[in-house]
Specification:
8-stranded mixed β-sheet; transferase (chains A, B); 36% helix; Homoserine O-acetyltransferase (chains A, B); 369 residues; homodimer; AB_hydrolase_fold (chains A, B); amino-acid biosynthesis (chains A, B); methionine biosynthesis (chains A, B); 10 strands
Chain lengths: 369, 369
Amino acid sequence: MSINGFCEAEQCVVGIGALTTEAGVTIPDVDIAFRRWGTFRGDPHGANNLVVVEHALTADANAPEWWAGLIGPGLALDTDTYCVVCTNALGSCYGSTGPASLHPDGKPWGSRFPALSIRDVVAAEKALFDALGITRVHGIVGGSMGGARALEWTLTHPDFASTALVMAVGSRASAWQIGIQSAQISAIENDPHWADGDYYDARLAPDAGLATARRIAHLTYRGELEIDARFGTRAQEGHNPRGTHRDSAQQFAVNSYLEHQGRKLVERFDAGAYVTLTEALNRHDVGHGRGGIAQALARSTVPTLVAGVDTDILYPFHQQEEMANNLGHSLGLRTISSPVGHDAFLTEKAQLADILKEFVAAAAVEARY
Amino acid sequence: MSINGFCEAEQCVVGIGALTTEAGVTIPDVDIAFRRWGTFRGDPHGANNLVVVEHALTADANAPEWWAGLIGPGLALDTDTYCVVCTNALGSCYGSTGPASLHPDGKPWGSRFPALSIRDVVAAEKALFDALGITRVHGIVGGSMGGARALEWTLTHPDFASTALVMAVGSRASAWQIGIQSAQISAIENDPHWADGDYYDARLAPDAGLATARRIAHLTYRGELEIDARFGTRAQEGHNPRGTHRDSAQQFAVNSYLEHQGRKLVERFDAGAYVTLTEALNRHDVGHGRGGIAQALARSTVPTLVAGVDTDILYPFHQQEEMANNLGHSLGLRTISSPVGHDAFLTEKAQLADILKEFVAAAAVEARY
């Protein structure tokens, strides 16, 4: 089976059969969605030109859209040279099996959908590539949840990628992340329309809870200097947030912006998928069952480049420093310097282009094709 | 009237009459609670030994309790030398008038209680000191919301304090603060027991909403390194947060700790007061109506020492830098170096003692008594 014959820039869905989670729940008939750009060249079990791009929490397999300007002919991930593949994470809602998918009994999985770990998400991707007949790739790259997946790939399947680029993530969840991420999950669970996760056949979804979760999350994705430079204490146009009584309809501009971010997510993402993948991030810990972080990273054999954002409050730069310092085969640590905060792994295109070029060039040394 | 005759270490409540908020609502018959330690000496309109201590969001007038080891005989704020007075903020629930207080009609204020600004809180304190016959003090000090009040005092009533110490706060709310504080307010407002603020006569209060607000707030009060060092990805004893399905009863240790913080606050604080004072912090802006921050600070004539915590994510250190750089009569900027984050203005006793001693000594130069 070659991937050249199908899926060029369009989404494909491949059934990978049953998957049993780390915690021991079996999901029969798992689907994984993916997209491909560029022509696959080389040996699917050796040197080839395939680069796997891993998306973050609420993104999809359409990598050239959320990484616009970085993937395509002549760009940093040059699809004239490389074959780029992006899969939609297990547990998401963009084509891969998740809590909104139908259980074999014909009803949505809902609360029956198991909790996932990042390793489970990677296991599903491994099964996809096995199904595609590909057991080795040129490189794997991701930021945030995508970085967690890329890092897990290198530790769980050290023979898969010739090189890796891990950005804006830590080797495990920090207690602060678990705290703020769990507050987001609680906001959804406390929405009466959540119905313990079984709202898919109901008239109303936990939209308010999901929007609240996103408001909180967005404040961890953006640097406080950047948000302040944009909004400060400015009132939303036509609003008076300094009136006689507190009135949630009279807003500071920043709150109007955050509500807008919440609404935008509600329109495009499923609350159940949000809870599932946020919970997977809570469980992220490459040291779990491997004798701890330091030992797990030290055993890594995949040449891995690490990058972090200097103003990231969600995955602070010291987490990438620690990762780069402990990796068995580190290619070094790159700093994305930006006022934007965590989201700079999506927005700082010029710096990202340089880092991506370094990453694919590093792999070229390891694996000519 | 002398304050020596009463209130030694015990809480007193003084009626200050009517107060009209900046936004134009009149609260008749306002009470302000305060405590005093040490003997007042000197001229109530000139040089004297009175130091005003301003508390933070959910604290009370019992300053030697929340600043244990810093206020008392022989301590940094030496009550053998100084007379220390701490007032409970207007809008709080520890003796001063707030939304839980009774309206003249005999029912709780609830939703009728006006939104306050930090200036309104200061105006009530000014009226208290006027009622006590004191128009000048040795110094005024506070951290966080207490720092916002101390700073506003120096700008609104430049003849009141001979010196000021402003800690762990900014000259105005930042957009990030407004965003995260409003998320906390929303958590309370979305609790069905909030009842638009009129829950005081109901059987149930918005406890869950207040606890959620505190969970979020606590993550902004503590440095992520400190929280991570304490909890990491550890499970709460006897819990399995990595089970087959997400289960909010199976917790990571950090979430158990945050829930505990939420419960503790629910037991001692009123949700209405929390919303009122958080909203006052949203409105904090010393530049408002004064031509902006830089101009307002430049006009300050009170010798003011500024201190900040190097790991504070709620009021990042650059905010205190900006304040110290722009103040008309700055006594300089001190760094509280701590992994604890914002709360270091409460916990780093040795460093705080040094800063407090410098502050009271600075005032002594200005105003001998």
